[in-house]
UniProtKB/TrEMBL annotation, chain A:
Lineage, uppermost ranks: Bacteria, Pseudomonadati, Pseudomonadota, Gammaproteobacteria, Oceanospirillales
Subcellular location: Cell inner membrane; Cell membrane
Protein name: Ectoine/hydroxyectoine ABC transporter permease subunit EhuC
Keyword Transport: yes
Gene name in the database record: ehuC
Organism: Salinicola acroporae
Keyword Membrane attached: yes
Record NCBIfam families: ectoine_ehuC, HEQRo_perm_3TM
Protein family: Belongs to the binding-protein-dependent transport system permease family. HisMQ subfamily.
Automatic annotation (TrEMBL), chain B:
Protein name: Ectoine/hydroxyectoine ABC transporter ATP-binding protein EhuA
Source organism phylogeny: Bacteria, Pseudomonadati, Pseudomonadota, Gammaproteobacteria, Oceanospirillales
GO MF terms, alphabetically ordered: ATP binding
CDD domains given in the database record: ABC_HisP_GlnQ
Subcellular location: Cell inner membrane
Superkingdom assignment: Bacteria
Membrane topology summary: Peripheral membrane protein
Keywords (A to Z) from UniProt: Amino-acid transport, ATP-binding, Cell membrane, Membrane, Nucleotide-binding, Transport
ABC transporter domain location: 12-257
Family classification: Belongs to the ABC transporter superfamily.
PANTHER family the record matches: AMINO ACID IMPORT ATP-BINDING PROTEIN (PTHR43166), GLUTAMATE_ASPARTATE IMPORT ATP-BINDING PROTEIN GLTL (PTHR43166:SF9)
Length: 223, 265
């Protein structure tokens, strides 16, 4: 078989990989903000939940998290009369998002804490409410600081999507495995896939750089 | 300048205020009054508690004892029947609206243009319309001589320009009391004058109460109704500028003034 004939199934898989990456990165960013800010909350319950989430999802492997959500959760749900069976796509996106969100939460927390306390004081002196201080003063300064690490995490996330092939999701890694089983042509298949992942990572990095420049555009003014 | 000390109407009153950082007592039962419209300058050695007094008034620093009154209302407490209990956030927000502060390091919002620095709080906090806030912002920029810098970001401005924006930003909230914490200490000497000129204009406003911490003694003498010399968290000596600068009574005051006025001796 010609190697070009691999391209159609691989592109199908690539599209699934792209979708998994985009959805889980966006959902992961939401988790990162939610729990990163939650860890800074003065409410002990909110803080406790956030710390527990961050520690559990950083302290266990993505593979186990994925299997737990896809295989264990439905059985546990059954026991308490809930239908927690998710389609593989949902389980995959959720597992990836929760995993990357836990790392992102620490980045959010760090960047928010790194905003000088003088900014907080200036906002207080101008009588901002706590919420407006966060949204209008702290976060706009903290987000540009998060972006370089968020870029790395997004690429990390892209690479991690390969794991979801293990719950039979038809992503790029899954298609590659199918073709290899059929043709035994490991070298060609995996070389192709290697370059395709690399290409995607380049595009993703470029997108994150653009986003970084956008959220930090005030820094570059007049320079 | 005005002489408000005759008809006493203290807009600020510290009543036996205690402030500690850990074991370190910074203010030890401080009694201190500022009359409505009065321009008071606090001078004194570093670490004597000058900034702490301003920061307590701006609600950036809690007190450990005594009561602070602003406009007759307790600042850090709220009345409950006869007694006072610690103030909640709502009370603090209400009280803060009377005060504005200018910081030594300017503390402008770096992610906002100059004009946005002046309009953000009026719009977000006071609920003023954007158009109205912009118009008022431009008036304030005109007052501090920076209309041509409206769309620049703070990092594109000199220190002196940034501090003038800092003053305009505080004024945009229409405070009754302006607090200045060493507004020119972070500036290169050639930029000090432009900032002092702006403060001088404000000092001519009869209704505005001003509390200024500075090491610019000649300026303090020109604009102040009263000078307070702070030492170790207490007012060691206070009086009219002529008295303090020409005939200080306390040895500590003499030594301090000698050190700042003739630093080369
Ligand atoms: N956040 C703080 N923690 C501990 N000590 C502080 C803090 N802020 C001020 N101090 C101490 O309080 C004293 C008075 O400080 P400050 O009011 O800043 O003095 P000044 O403005 O007159 O130089 C100093 O001894 C200073 O070290
Ligand atoms: Mg000070």
């Amino acid at each position: 078989m010609e190697w070009t004939s691999y391209l159609a199934p691989l592109s199908q898989g690539a599209w699934v990989t792209v979708q998994l990456t985009v959805y889980s990165t966006i959902l992961g960013a939401l988790c990162a903000f939610l729990f990163g800010l939650g860890k800074l909350s003065h409410n002990p319950l909110v803080k406790g939940i956030s710390v527990a989430y961050i520690e559990i999802f950083r302290g266990t492997s993505l593979l186990v998290q994925l299997f737990w959500i896809y295989f264990a959760l439905p059985i546990m749900g059954q026991a308490i009369g809930l239908d927690l069976r998710f389609p593989p796509v949902v389980a995959g996106v959720v597992a990836l998002a929760l995993n990357i969100g836990a790392y992102g939460a620490e980045v959010v927390r760090g960047a928010v804490q790194a905003v000088p306390k003088e900014q907080y004081e200036a906002a207080t002196a101008l009588n901002f409410t706590g919420r407006k201080r966060l949204w209008r003063i702290t976060l706009p300064q903290a987000i540009p600081e998060m972006m370089p690490t968020f870029g790395n995490l997004a690429v990390q996330n892209l690479k991690d999507t390969a794991l979801v092939s293990l719950i039979s999701l038809g992503d790029m890694a899954f298609r590659a495995e199918q073709i290899r089983n059929f043709t035994q042509d490991s070298v060609t298949v995996y070389t192709l896939v290697l370059f395709m992942y690399f290409g995607m990572a380049l595009v993703l990095t470029a997108c994150m750089k653009l986003l970084e420049r956008y959220v930090g555009r005030w820094r570059a003014a007049g320079r | 300048m005005n002489d408000a000390t005759d008809n006493r109407d203290p807009i600020i009153r510290f009543d036996k205020v205690v402030k500690r950082f850990g074991d370190h007592v910074v203010l030890d039962e401080l009694d201190f009054e500022v009359q409505r419209g009065e321009k008071v300058t606090i001078i004194g050695p570093s670490g004597s508690g000058k900034s702490t007094v301003l920061r307590i008034l701006m609600t950036l620093e809690e007190i450990n004892g005594g009561v602070v009154y602003v406009g007759g209302e307790p600042l850090w407490h709220q009345r409950k029947g006869e007694s006072l209990e610690p103030a909640g956030e709502q009370h603090l927000r209400q009280m803060r609206s009377h005060l504005g502060m200018v910081f030594q390091q300017f503390n402008l919002f770096p992610h906002m243009t100059v004009l946005r620095n002046l309009t953000e709080a009026p719009v977000q906090v006071l609920g003023v319309s954007k158009a109205e806030a912009k118009q008022r912002g431009m008036e304030l920029l005109e007052m501090v001589g920076l209309t041509d810098q409206a769309s620049k970001y703070p990092h594109q401005l000199s220190g002196g320009q940034q501090q003038r924006v800092g003053i305009a930003r505080a004024l945009a909230m229409r405070p009754k009391i302006m607090l200045f914490d060493e507004p020119t200490s972070a500036l290169d000497p050639e930029l000090v004058g432009e900032v002092l000129n702006v403060i001088r204009t404000l000092a001519d406003e009869h209704d505005l109460t001003m509390l200024l911490v500075t090491h610019e003694m000649h300026f303090a003498r020109q604009v102040s109704d009263r000078i307070c010399f702070f030492d170790k968290g207490r007012i060691k000596e206070q009086g009219k500028p002529e008295e303090i600068f020409t005939a200080p009574k306390e040895e500590r005051t003499k030594a301090f003034l000698k050190a700042v006025l003739d630093p080369d001796d």
